[in-house]
Amino acid sequence: MKKRAIIVAGLSGIALGGCIQVKAPDKPIEINLNVKVQQEVVVRLQRDAQTLIQNNPELFPQ
């Protein structure tokens, strides 16, 4: 009985093996993280500009 179950399982696996197809995607996977990077750059530039204006008030008259 055990032998018969092993044979049936093996034949089922062979029969179903032809139905499964694995294919790589045509286009690469793209992960867009630009939003956070842009926000950090803007904040950093804003702080640098504010420090520059405070340290050199003669360069930026009001």
From TrEMBL:
Keywords: Lipoprotein
PROSITE patterns in the cross-refs: PROKAR_LIPOPROTEIN
InterPro entries per the UniProt record, alphabetical: YnbE
Superkingdom of source: Bacteria
Organism: Sphingobium olei
Annotated Pfam families: Lipoprotein_19
Name of this chain's protein: YnbE family lipoprotein
